[in-house]
Design brief:
Elements (H helix, E strand, L loop, with lengths): L3 E3 L4 E6 L3 E7 L3 E7 L4 E7 L16 H14 L8 E6 L15 H16 L3 E6 L5 E6 L5 E5 L3 E4 L1
Helix pairs in contact: 1-2
Amino acid sequence: MSNVISVGMADLKTTKAPNILMTAGLGSCIGICVHDPIQKVGGMAHIMLPTAGSAPGGNPAKYADTAMDLLVTEILRLGASKSRLRAKMAGGAQMFSFPGKPPVLKIGDRNAEQVIVELKRLGIPLLVSDVGGSFGRTIHFDVGTGDLKVRTINHGEKVI
């Protein structure tokens, strides 16, 4: 029997099958899901910003450039093989825009771009993503199957 494990904002969790990882409220944030399909272990990070920059200390799960290393380390501790890791992501919306004015800061785009940079650096293929738009998402990640269910208001639900 599976448990649903909630991942909060600027948080990350790892688990083994048959558990499900879930995060809600993905606007400009990214939900990045990484798993090993053979060992059936994986994790999810709810990333808020692209880089930690010069911010000392703080929460490494908040930033794409620091969360990815931590997420992979924790998944490997569960018995995953780095060579088998695969990723999926969702989120990265442009939540605040005003007619006739340029998008403010484009945090969603920058978050998605930085996650891709980090995945390439780590040698982890991104299998599929559901990013962009102007709507929020809630995601459920099955670490056993690798299925990522993406739910949105007014845009339906899909499994990627």
